[in-house]
Amino acid sequence: MIEGRTGSFEIVIGLEVHAQVISRAKLFSGAATRFGAEPNTEVSPIDAAFPGMLPVLNKFCVEQAVKTGLALEAEINLESVFERKNYFYPDLPPGYQISQYQNPIVGGGRIILDMPDGSSRAIRITRLHLEQDAGKSLHDQDPRLTFVDLNRAGVALMEIVSEPDLRSAEEVGIYLRKLRAILRALGTSNGNMEEGSMRCDANVSVRRPGAALGTRTEIKNVNSIRFLMQAVDYEARRQIEVVEDGGRVLQETRLFDSARGTTRPMRSKEEAHDYRYFPDPDLVPLVLDREWVEELKRSLPELPDAKKARFVKNYGLSSSDAAFLAGDGASAAYFEATAQGREAKTAANWVMVELLGALNRKGLGIAGSPVSAESLGRLIDLVSEGTISGRIAKEVFAEMIETGADPGSIVKEKGLFQVSDAGVIEEAVDAVLRRETDKVAQYRSGREKLFGYFVGQVMRATEGRANPALVNELLRKKLAG
Ligand code: ADP
Ligand code: MG
């Protein structure tokens, strides 16, 4: 909900995501699909639309689409049809793209959003269909000429369309991250938006609460989740202003300008293409064997939702912590290795707060972490055995992240062992109480908040190494006496 000048508005968003299928060969040809290859080195005569070439469907791409559909709890259509979507563009040699229209391979499904407050919300998926990507026009290689690179032409894409169920830019971000996590867990797409292997169009409209759906605009081809969230937010506010000024939102396609953070018109509905779809006469309808689909279903890996539920059940994590860790395969595996034989919540905190925080600051991913899960586990053990205090552990961790050194060696080398010798701590406590006579008097006359101050002073005197439980116990005894 957004507050305008004249009351509140609801934002309505539906997303169309194009995810590049992980496959060594293209959807209808045997040409390779490596990212970043020399231009026009991965092009077969089919991709270049030489006369008389015939497309041959790549079964592995079909398998990838079906697996994705199953993971989205969607209906798998045992019969689907490839159609030609006709338009002219220099990087589209045949003059049409092979896509699916009336009969897609996957029908209605859903994606569960894990909201920050721990609740969940289901977003309906309308369909998923297979189609070919187009080539790429390169406008920046020559002052006068445009070059065409056909490496991407014919690469398999899954277009995943949602119902207009999303209600905020925040939900858009959660949806895309969740979808990406599912695709990555399945190995059906790497979901890298920077490389263009996941692209997203957002359809946005606004309405008064309870009113019918408003006219939508479509924001095309934004290449990062953060930018898409900005674009949706800007576009919703722009539409609210139009409505509040007594105007009408025009159905049009808009482009996001990331430098300005605004959207601007690209083409209106009147200029929209008529693609003249018709079934591709070169391809028979795609018929799937029910048993084959069932077998794929049985072979699906553990998906983020199941992982989240297991983390809650087996490790006692909160729903939002479980969703966070389960949302990324590498973080989930790291957490499980760290939690092995240890207090799971403690392990989760170390991974989510200290480890991911530090890696983030260094611009590293889990895969590049200088601290292994085994090593972080040993650090946690040092605390639980009472060898070092929690505060010292953070210092040790800071060093581990820099040097990758073993926590035990750091503790030994720097003499960071926790002092649990009651005699030594008692001496420190006595010294502090002797020095702070004013505060002791205040405390005894009722300013109990000062207790934390005394603890701090004793910790300081022992360079943070005193066993906090013992410090507390001794201070209470002496202050009471
Ligand atoms: P098209 O084929 O023109 O792109 P679709 O009907 O397939 O149109 O819809 C595309 C996307 O637009 C879907 O994700 C759908 O949920 C979304 N959508 C449809 N109507 C609205 C609306 N009024 N507001 C926001 N999104 C909408
Ligand atoms: Mg569209």
What's the topology here?
Blueprint: E1 2-4, E2 7-20, H1 59-71, E3 79-80, E4 82-86, E5 96-100, E6 109-114, E7 120-132, E8 136-138, E9 147-149, E10 156-162, H2 169-186, E11 198-207, E12 217-222, H3 225-244, E13 252-257, E14 262-268, E15 278-279, E16 286-287, H4 290-298, H5 304-315, H6 319-326, H7 329-339, H8 344-362, H9 373-384, H10 390-403, H11 407-414, H12 422-435, H13 437-444, H14 450-461, H15 468-480
Parallel strand pairs: 12-13
Antiparallel strand pairs: 1-2, 2-10, 2-11, 3-16, 4-5, 4-15, 6-7, 7-10, 8-9, 11-12, 13-14
Bound molecules: adenosine-5'-diphosphate (ADP) and magnesium ion.
Output the structural class: alpha+beta
Largest sheet: 9 strands, mixed
Helix content, binned percent: 25-40%
Q: What is the approximate shape?
A: elongated
Radius of gyration: 30 Å
Enumerate the distinct ligands. adenosine-5'-diphosphate, magnesium ion
Give a brief rundown of this model.
By secondary structure, the chain is of the alpha+beta class. The protein is built from 15 helices and 16 strands.
What descriptors fit this protein?
481 residues, alpha+beta, Arc Repressor Mutant, subunit A, nine-stranded mixed beta sheet, three-stranded antiparallel beta sheet, 15 helices, 16 strands, 40% helix, 20% strand, binds adenosine-5'-diphosphate, binds magnesium ion
